[in-house]
Amino acid sequence: WSLPLKSVFVTFPGDIPKNLTDSELAENYLKNFGYMNTVERSGFQSMVSTAKALKRMQRQLGLEETGVLNKETLDAMKKPRCGVPDVAN
Amino acid sequence: YQTFEGDLKWDHNDVTYRILNYSPDMDSAIIDDAFARAFKVWSDVTPLTFTRLYDGTADIMISFGKKDHGDPYPFDGKDGLLAHAYPPGEGIQGDAHFDDDEFWTLGKGAVVKTRFGNANGATCHFPFSFGGKSYSTCTTEGRTDNLPWCSTTADYDKDKKYGFCPSELLYTFDGNAGGAPCVFPFIFLGEEYDSCTTEGRSDGYRWCATTGNFDQDKKYGFCPSRDIAVIGGNSEGDPCHFPFVFLGKEYHSCTSEGRGDGKLWCSTTDSYDDDQKWGFCPDQGYSLFLVAAHEFGHALGLDHSNIREALMYPMYSYAEDFSLHSDDIAGIQFLYGKTGPDPTPPNPNPPTAEPTEPTDPTEPTTTTTAVPVDPTKDACKQDTFDTITVIQGELHFFKDGHYWKTSGSSNAELKGPFTISNKWPALPAVIDSAFEDSLTKKLYFFSGTRFWVYTGQNVLGPRSIEKLGLPNNIEKVEGALQRGKGKVLLFSGENFWRLDVKAQTIDKGYPKFTDVVFGGVPNDAHDVFQYQGHTYFCRDRFYWRMNSRRQVDRVGYVKYDLLKC
Predict the structure, then answer these.
(1) Complex confidence, ipTM
(2) Which of B270, B435, B441, B453 could serve as a FRET partner for B165 with CA atoms 20 to 30 Å apart?
């Protein structure tokens, strides 16, 4: 058995650090693209639960609606994309 | 498909766009072409047309920027967010922004358009062979001037077809030096620079002076990226340096070591550990055409689709042979309708008779038979007019045998169409220019090389415009401007003449060049007229309005501002 490589991550100058945990990445994604915040009919802004937001995101992107942060959902979140939110706010 | 809340859309079909700056990743001609093709994706399936403006405010303002680029939604470096656009409307609405920390290509790696050489600007062919060796990037081999070049066919040795690759030694883009090459070394704030720099800028773009002293001459341009240049990082524009040392280990190619995201990078000096200069290695890049087509969808009023194959799906994917998905077509046609003529339903009402103008009460009343006019002759459906002029205080628009008129007040109704032959029977269908003499109230009409003078219902002419002293090589008079009493400027081509109306002669000292006296207006205007104290020069569907101090104070649409469509 060979020894596994010990990866060392460095902070590259000028880089925008994206070494986020999966849940941080998901939370940012759901917020940035409008899945977390919704405006009620009254105009009151409310926070949607992560599971509900995930389901909404999965439906919008044509993924299986599980409400769980699975690999397929994470992969979708890492793909290059347009900056316009998916859910109008 | 989805549209934005309220079905935001442009209220006109002739949408304008303007490219504010360029990316260093591709030649400006390729970027222009990518945007034009992206617009064509939408104009092919709708009645929309897209016209490029080179100055002023366009409906869709297109720009490249990095990170914080002047709106509330910063980009995020390489990958991640690629671009964004705003739904239709005033100001920033309708604008499209592209993240210039991306590597912009046509989706399959660097697109290197050559200049000079003998290949007529063809793109490089990679790999190519030269001197029995294979090259997959531009090279300076075989040259003493350090200019990178490439073959535009697979075999330079056989075909001898070549061109020069992007290099700051060959040209710059944007800036204020008209594309002149960099001059090295140059002085900036007292310091000497031997290469392009990002110093003095907050947007990360590399620039250079195009004279030896920027402090003195203030001439500069942006440096085009070489095909081997790294993307992003902190030394954009520099090539990888192989081998390089990173954490004590030597690397001979790009690596993803040290990064959690798996992206390939390299050092641009021999030691990252010492210098910490790095950038991402060039990859396939993102297709500017595909991303632009998506963003322009937003700029036209489409929101994201949840159909994965649709252009308006939010994630990027490269498609070799792109065609617009039926979902995108349905979306855009929901907003703007389809191409081609609309089917004409049976009309139960009899054809509408042409409105007739009331005649002067002092004139004997004659009975004229109303001639039916095609009701589709709507002034708002005309792209341009043969001529526009003011007669008896009302703005008249002439086109193909018809005319419309409006008093110009804010709530004025547009009247017409009227047929020219009903009102002025001696005139031909196409009127190039017309004016009303402010002293005698006589109407002068010009068509081709002839003119007519109407006094009430009496007509004089046609006469040759040579009789007025205009040269015989003039094909038509395109505009007329009142200049005090009894003087009128007549425009043709890039010149104008001053007519003494009373003497019926051209004054001495004419012609003069239009652009010398009327700076900032198109010198190929097809309508020139005076209206409410301003001078208007029309070209295509736009007008340039000039005030009494000969300053252009407005550029706008004839259709919306003057006709109030």
Answers:
(1) 0.86
(2) B270
